[in-house]
Amino acid sequence: MENSNDLLSNRSKALIFKGRKFNDGDTSWIGGNAPAYFDDQKDFQSKYGSKYYFYLSLVNPLNPTMMYTIFFPRDYDEYLENNKYPNCAILLVEHPVSNESSTDVFTNPNMKKYAIDNCGVINNNTSENQIFLVKFGGTPEHIQNKNFYTKELVADSFEFLFQIDEQGYPEEDDFIQGNYPFSYGALYIYAQIKNENVTDPVVGYWQFS
After folding, report:
1. Could you tell me which of 102, 101, 135, 103 has the C-alpha nearest to residue 119?
2. At the N or C end, where does the chain have fewer CB atoms within 10 A?
3. How far apart are CA 105 and CA 35, in angstroms?
4. Cα–Cα distance, 136 to 16 (Å, whole number)
5. Cα 18 from Cα 9, distance rounded (Å)
6. What are phi and psi of 111, to 5 degrees?
7. Taking the mean position of all CA atoms in its chain, how far away is CA 119?
8. In terms of DSSP H, where are the helices of the chain?
9. Own/partner long-range contacts of 8-13 (Cβ < 8 Å, ≥24 apart)
10. Torsion angle of the four alpha carbons 137, 149, 195, 163, in this order, in degrees rounded to the nearest 10
């Protein structure tokens, strides 16, 4: 893999991920059940189990022992009204790598499980010509390029880490039933990044056209 300096410091490169059919042994996925890690998080289940759906889990490409898992409210209006930091209603949890749970506490019945496949490194300045599910590193591809979304993140020294773009969902007709969770939009994840050390990841905001 390219030096992480190219992804997060000079941001000349980016990692691109796409969705595909799930195979045994895949470690990152969208849809399906949440990771088994959350089976033991009883306080988390009690607080969010009846209110949130699991969205995806992505193994951190810079630290393959850890993964990022994202949950979104079942109530669309809740995360529509709370769509940006510091009050973004979409949850991100960083935790040790975990297989999929056999329980469906957080499962969204409208989404089928697909793998998230690392498709390799690209030049950041070519990413606008790519269709991707996840872009890690480089600079964000915004739907709405407005300072409104990033002002408070920048003030608190957060930097772009990765984004998830609904344009890059698997093309199979059975992947998702009904409306897209983010209205054919994108989520943008930020973190504290110092000397290529990444801490405190959060969902900074989400957008749609």
Report:
1. 135
2. C
3. 11
4. 7
5. 24
6. -120, 130
7. 16
8. 4-8, 42-48, 76-81, 147-155
9. 8/137, 8/159, 8/161, 8/193, 8/196, 8/198, 9/196, 11/124, 11/137, 11/138, 11/139, 12/123, 12/124, 12/125, 12/138, 13/121, 13/122, 13/123, 13/124, 13/137, 13/138
10. -20
Q: Give pLDDT tens digits along the chain (209 positions).
A: 457 899 999 999 999 999 999 999 999 999 999 999 999 999 999 999 999 999 999 999 999 999 999 999 999 999 999 999 999 999 999 999 999 999 999 999 999 999 999 999 999 999 999 999 999 999 999 999 899 999 999 999 999 999 999 999 998 888 999 999 999 999 999 999 998 799 999 999 999 98
Residues in the chain, overall count: 209
**196 close to 4: Cβ distance less than 8 angstroms:** yes
Cα–Cα distance, 12 to 118 (Å, whole number): 18
Q: Is 197 helix (H, G, I), strand (E, B) or coil?
A: strand
Tokens representing 21 are 């059919």
Q: Indicate the pTM of the whole model.
A: 0.96
Contact 60, 201 (CB under 8 A): no
User: Amino acid identity, residue 148?
Assistant: F
